[in-house]
Amino acid sequence: MGGFGGARDQDGDLGFVPRLPERLHRLCIRILWHGSRIRVDITAESTTYRLESGDSITLTHHGRRITLTDRPITLPNLSAAAE
Prior knowledge:
The chain is mostly beta strands. It has a single domain, classed as Maltose phosphorylase, domain 3. It is built from no helices and eight strands. The strands form two sheets. The chain has a four-stranded mixed β-sheet with strand order 1-2-6-7, with no helix packed on it. A four-stranded antiparallel β-sheet has the order 3-4-5-8, with no helix packed on it. The protein is globular. It starts with 6 loop residues before the first strand and ends in a 7-residue tail after the last strand.
């Protein structure tokens, strides 16, 4: 995994450090993780995580742990300078 979406398998845990190159305005990816399907919508400013099916799932966004349930979660993206 990896790439623009910044998806990482961190010893069996799913983590994201999303960044987009200047020419891209949005990226949407879908991932099936341990039986749960999640959708990740990334813009330069923020990322929205949605649980599309399956059980709740815990993941990290720029190191912050979040748990996805039936409500989408939108978080700001950190700039490279801020990390």
